[in-house]
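request received
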Amino acid sequence: MPALLAEKPSATNLTPTVRVDQIDWDRMAKDLADGGSAVARQLLTPAECEALTGLYAQKDIFRSRVVMARYAFGKGEYQYFSYPLPDLVGELRTALYRHLAPIANGWNERMRINTYYPSEHAQYLDLCHRAGQQRPTPLLLEYGAGDYCCMHQDLYGDLAFPMQVVILLAEPERDFTGGEFLLVEQNPRGLSKAEVVPLRQGDAVAFAVNHRPAKSARGAARVNLRHGVSRLHTGHRHTLGIIFHDAK
Amino acid sequence: MRSVRDRRFKQEHSDEATPGPQDSIQARNRTPDQVPVAYRERTPPMNTQLNLATLDTASPEYAARIAQYDWRRIAEDLDAYGVAILPSLLSADDCATASDLFADTTLSRMPPVEEMRSWGNGNYRYLRHSTPEIISALRTAIYPRLAPIANAWNEKMEIDDRYPITHQDYLEICRGAGQILPTSMLLEHTPGQQTLLHQDLYGDRAFPLQVAVVLSQRGADYSGGEFVITEQRPRMQTRPEVISLNRGDAVVFAVSNRPVAGTRGTYRVNLRHGFSKVREGRQLALSIIFHDAAA
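response:
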């Protein structure tokens, strides 16, 4: 299966912003519209992935830690970063938003939602903060053997940017087995569709937070999405989650 | 990747490959989780070339193979997760034999155009009652191992039904309830094709566990096509399972409900299963359901 697993030389000398700008965003927009998700391969280098994983032990840079089993969200845990975000996380959030905002605006137009996202993330955060959503939402997640995350939507208040990004920081088969990233799309008129998104270390998946526009006989319809992670069989799996709206 | 024979089959039946649900009116009136069943079996053709067994004959070979699994571990996995794997249930030869059945339309119990589409855009082939031995033998040999697990589940869920220890006897119960149509099927997924999350319920009688066997090798024959289960829990978020299977591996899983031990007693969860879309190549799978379908 060379097409899926092909290695391409990673551009270690480019800044994360330049790497984000070099993603084929036309393809990303099309994949997002077709299936609610799109993958950018090797957005982060293995060294960056390992550095981010290492942050998990630094308690002073996080605002809160959630043990999923306590809330029946699954098994495993995650921590929300405090402001100011680590440079790499902040830079990715700003750079990714710039490309996702036009796609989000296109979606809202098709779904006849009267919300417009400004072109810069700083402007959007300003809207969130004025609406009382002031706490940062980027997070690091840690899964060990037997851990999983139930199907959910990351909504933290009235304001929600409709797409988010997850970056896999560990390498499947080498660092862990199991632990598949999964999207389930609820079709209002029929059965739900499950999609497993194959990811490798450093790959970023952008996906719909809660709904996306879909074609229907009567024009624009909305399909509802949830995302989750299947049970890890062995090893450890860390991911970076980048959510663009802040939390109440 | 695809054999010449398969390609020819595809062309001859190109209407079948049309993706997307094209439901009949009956299909639209069904509850979304249930697959349609009201198809009359046609007069069986005089097919004597294949090694056809009579209705679910026990085979010592398959019984011996199935006896080798650690059934305590399987029962524990089923109790914990609603799913368990039987590695290498079928050999590469068995998989090839079962895969070849897909192209033989005379084994189908309904015309290709009527094969289901409401629950996926893959290609599905329901097999006739005089199914090839490989399938009926597996069904007969696996059932006695699962019946005690199913009975324990019913006890925990306070459901009165108990399942007899032989599949023959259970099929008698199905027959008594008017469920006489065969339910075993072959599934084919090619790029972009998937089977949506569903439950294989075909009438009032339902054996609570079923089996799927993947007949192709991931990484070599296809990519994508993961077997997915979602488990809906009362007042909680849905729990996902993704099961990666190699060629010949079987997965046993709950058809719809199973008991889960909670802090305040046992509760029931509701499962659905499906295949995520195949990204490259061709995947074939065999589905074995222990209840028959209402006529």
